[in-house]
Amino acid sequence: SASTWPGPLQQGWPVSEWRLILDYVVPGTPQPKPRPRAGRRGGRTAIYDDRRHPSVAYREAVAFAAGAARHRARVSTIPADTPVRVDLDLVFERRRSLFRLADSEERIYKATKPDRDNCEKLQLDAMTAAGLWSDDGVVCAGEVTKWWGAILDRETRRSEAPHVRVRLSLLADG
Fold first, then answer.
1. How many angstroms separate the CA atoms of 63 and 61, rounded?
2. 3-class DSSP string for 72-138
3. By C-alpha distance, which of 135, 21, 138 is closest to 82?
């Protein structure tokens, strides 16, 4: 039988309105947050992040872009109890096999690695480092979409430059 679980609209729950406060672009190929590593030191097992991983430099670039956007928009640190929405468009350079005449010139969905949740985690951690909030637990809504970039020149196989577009919104006052 069909599920009888009532959705938000059937319950009469409010549909949230969001107010955009930051909209910025981070240049470069979106990177996922790497898995923590484990090692033994002095007879004990320790969990650590690999500081040599390529995502470390990218995370610093993301934190810089977030901090610069925050400064330009004069956004202060978001309080811990404030609902936040973060929408991410992850745009990757189009691979060579996607320049056929049958392939759309527009952006197309990217259904391959890296995992979108790991890319989102790196972005949110960098925003925390930039001081947007003290804990990314305030993020309660948002959409993350992975794209192959739009074709700019099919003949030379040039596509839209890789980047991440970040849109950060707060719940509008009732």
1. 5
2. HHCCCCECCCCCEEEEEEEEECCCHHHCCCCCCCCCEECCCCCCHHHHHHHHHHHHHHCCCECCHHH
3. 138
**Which residue has tokens 């189009």?**
94
Q: Per the structure block, which two tokens stand in for 33?
A: 């947050």
Dihedral of the CA atoms 122, 128, 131, 132 (nearest 10)?
Answer: 90
DSSP-assigned letters across all residues of 48-67: E--TTSTHHHHHHHHHHHHH
Q: Is the pLDDT of residue 104 over 60?
A: yes
Query: DSSP assignment, residue 14?
Result: P
- The mean-pLDDT minimum among 10-24, 80-94, 112-126, 142-156 falls in 10-24
Direct distance between the N- and C-terminal alpha carbons of the chain, in angstroms, rounded to an integer: 38
**Per-residue model confidence (pLDDT) at position 51:** 75
